[in-house]
Specification:
The chain has 680 residues and is an alpha+beta fold. It folds into five domains: 100 residues, Rossmann fold (3-Layer(aba) Sandwich); 62 residues, ATP-grasp fold, A domain (Dna Ligase, domain 1, 2-Layer Sandwich), CATH 3.30.1490; 243 residues, D-amino Acid Aminotransferase, Chain A, domain 1, CATH 3.30.470; 117 residues, Glycoprotein, Type 4 Pilin; 91 residues, Beta Barrel (OB fold (Dihydrolipoamide Acetyltransferase, E2P)), CATH 2.40.50.100. An eight-stranded antiparallel β-sheet has the order 14-13-10-11-12-15-22-20, sandwiched between helices. The protein has an eight-stranded antiparallel barrel with strand order 24-25-26-27-28-29-30-31. Strand 13 and strand 14 form a beta hairpin. It starts with 10 loop residues before the first strand and ends with a strand.
Length: 680
């Protein structure tokens, strides 16, 4: 029986990192609870470390395994004098062994009891409990018990976890074996358990979840629903509450089902019952997440509750103090997950240094939960989430417009992000009409991906990069700082710079005319511009029509980042006096991002077709197939399974085939065919 005595928490160890660790620390600070951060070598100077009163190194390896070492975390809590542990989400948040280890060490675990985590952590067992509680379930089988004549499509999913890890849609029998193999590896890496389920896949369904909250005294409430259908790789990127598809009657039915399951297992603390909502209004049990959810802020904004505070109070043994009569939804909240990734390249993770980070501070109803700041190093060992940006407004349309505007003004430079995709989703007419499902990105790929710059937009961004560098040179000059660089006593000559943007050349020329005015040309267009001010990291340019546009600019070496109007441009400056480069591989396949080689799919001497996956990399907890852009023959394998690799490292040396199918000798070396990876 669950104990009901109260225990005041004085010092909390937060067994997580990034934005969720910062968010938990904020509530602990408000409650007068001291905090302890943990960090790997990769996170030594991360914001979450400085957000806490103390910090304990749990390295030494800068990898996600540091945060999965239960013994190190327990030792860290003891060393820092913590009396409680909050697991956040991800890592060990749904690990029954970790919850038990905390309780065994005399630490309060902020979450449900170990036996409940164990029961609901197994998707197979959770389905049995849901069925017993009267909740409809999607037909599903343990992997070894799936019928040979099962109907496709099906979903392969990890039994021990969620978040899109170890999940694959299989539409034909021929796809089953490779999907199982890949899902097993990914599940084992993410959860330490490679058990899989096969589940009927519902086309056109929505992903709707119910937030539950219970205390140790038997009180249970649900805090309404969240719509989480906008997903990539089965992982949510846009969430909202209320759902545009849920009626009051359906909300009541879903909430009643979620609470029935919670009572069946004796649930307490915060949790989420995830459901699939079919087009006909029927709903089916998916799983229970026995932890705080990434998207919990939308529930907080529409209910006015602090869920972390409620979690801590429940863990201390306090009664919930809430009833159905106390709960209501006010307004509408939408959350976007800002990731360091490239949607145009199959959502490849994008590590690096965040040169600039600015969030709008003057937007009513806006909340930003961030785990980064200007100068942060974004490692490739962890989930690429930078921040959650959430807007609350009286109506759904207002919330979407407010959030889109805030994202357009947000500055995140130095790493590629999914910001433009998020804005495109929020402004899409089908999203605004509430007509969404879990394949929204696929249905509207043409409108959401690969959007070309508007007329003059690329040229203006390139000019902003060039003229920002002019200002940078002038500001750093000790002699005659008020005179424009390139000024001559006679007719001034034009300065020129050559950039590359997404593989194409962009040439910029500018000639100073005095008084911050320039005659300019860029990308085939000519204009006159006046530099109209701008603060640190910003340049303002006025065109001939008197229109002033502001650009956020940041530079690292020869790479220039320019952001304006919600669009991001990265220009690589061609050196004026390039050094002689080493011979590069004509057919070398190189890594598109840092990671670890988990599979090599070819052998030396094998032929390969254009678009064929040759190597599987694991990066940021996901697998990525690295494919060759051309047909050829494998000359030499440069890596073995298990090898760590850096971005640009040659993986496979290839002899490319010409139009007649003949191979050409290729010299292996750096910088060959950097074909994009995609989810394996």
């Amino acid at each position: 029986m669950a104990r009901t005595e109260t225990r005041t928490i004085r010092r909390m160890l937060i067994a997580n990192r990034g934005e969720i660790a910062c968010r938990i620390a904020r509530t602990c600070r408000d409650m007068g609870i001291a905090t302890v951060a943990v960090f790997s070598d990769a996170d030594e100077d991360a914001p979450h470390v400085r957000a806490c009163d103390q910090a304990v190194r749990i390295g030494p390896a800068p990898s996600r395994s540091s945060y999965l070492a239960i013994d190190r975390l327990i030792e860290a809590a003891r060393a820092a004098g913590a009396d409680a542990v909050h697991p956040g989400y991800g890592f060990l948040a749904e690990n029954a062994g970790f919850a038990a280890a905390c309780e065994g060490a005399g630490l309060v675990f902020v979450g449900p009891p170990p036996d409940v985590i164990a029961a609901l952590g197994s998707k197979e067992r959770a389905r049995e409990l849901a069925a017993r509680a009267g909740v409809p379930v999607v037909p599903s089988f343990p992997l070894g018990a799936a019928p040979a004549d099962m109907t496709y499509p099906v979903l392969i999913k990890a039994s021990a976890g969620g978040g899109g890890k170890g999940m694959r849609i299989v539409r034909a029998p021929s796809e089953l074996a490779p999907a199982i193999e890949s899902a097993r590896r990914e599940a084992l890496a993410a959860f330490g358990d490679d058990a899989l389920l096969v589940e009927r896949y519902l086309e056109g369904a929505r992903h709707v979840e119910i937030q539950i909250l219970g205390d140790r005294h038997g009180a249970l409430v649900h805090l309404f629903e969240r719509e989480c259908s906008i997903q990539r790789r089965h992982q949510k990127i846009v969430e909202e509450s209320p759902s545009p598809a849920v009626t009051p009657a359906l909300r009541e039915a879903m909430g009643r089902a979620a609470l029935a399951l919670a009572r069946e297992v004796g649930y307490h603390n915060a949790g989420t019952v995830e459901l699939l909502l079919a087009e006909d209004g029927s709903f089916y049990f998916l799983e229970v997440n026995t932890r705080l959810q990434v998207e919990h802020p939308v529930t907080e904004l529409v209910t006015g509750l602090d869920l972390v505070r409620e979690q801590i109070r429940v863990a201390e043994g306090e009664p919930l103090g809430l009833s159905d009569a106390d709960l209501r939804q006010t307004g509408h909240a939408i959350e976007c997950r800002l990731y360091a990734e490239d949607p145009e390249e199959g959502f490849l993770p994008a590590g690096g240094r965040l040169l600039a980070w600015r969030v709008p501070g003057d937007v009513a109803g806006l909340r930003v939960d961030a785990g980064v700041e200007a100068g942060s190093q974004v490692p490739t060992h962890y989930d690429p989430l930078l921040a959650k940006v959430i807007a609350h407004a009286p109506t759904r349309g207002e919330a979407a417009r407010r959030l889109a505007g805030a994202l357009e003004r947000l500055v995140a430079q130095g790493v590629t992000t999914n910001r433009e995709l998020l804005v495109a989703v929020l402004r899409h007419p089908e999203f605004l009409a509430g007509r969404i499902d879990t394949h929204f990105l696929d249905h509207h790929r043409a409108e959401l991906f690969g959007r070309a710059p508007e007329a003059g937009e690329l040229a203006r961004a390139a000019l902003a990069a060039a003229l920002a560098e002019v200002e940078e040179r002038r500001a750093g000059r000790a002699v005659l700082p008020d005179i424009d660089p390139g000024w001559r006593s006679h007719h001034p000559s034009e300065a020129a710079v050559q950039y590359r943007w997404r593989g194409r050349a962009v040439e910029v020329g500018y000639r100073p005319l005095g008084r911050d005015r320039f005659a300019c040309r860029a990308d085939g267009e000519t204009c006159a511009l006046r530099r109209a001010g701008g603060g640190a990291g910003e340049v303002a340019l006025e065109d001939e029509a008197g229109v002033v546009r502001r650009f956020a600019v940041a530079r690292s070496g020869l790479v220039h980042h320019v952001s304006a109007g919600g669009r991001d441009f990265t220009f690589t400056e061609e050196p004026r006096f390039p050094e002689r480069r080493a011979l590069q591989a004509e057919g070398g396949l190189s890594a598109p991002m840092p990671g670890r080689v988990v599979r090599v799919l070819v052998a030396e001497g094998d032929p390969c077709a254009a678009g064929q996956a040759l190597v599987i990399l694991e990066a940021m907890k996901m697998e990525h197939a690295v494919k060759t852009a051309r047909a050829g023959r494998v000359v030499k394998l440069m890596v073995r399974e298990g090898d760590p690799v850096e971005a640009g490292a040659v993986l496979v040396a290839l002899d490319p085939l010409d139009a007649h199918g003949a191979a050409h000798d290729a010299v292996s070396g750096p910088g060959g065919d950097r074909s994009g990876g995609e989810a394996a």
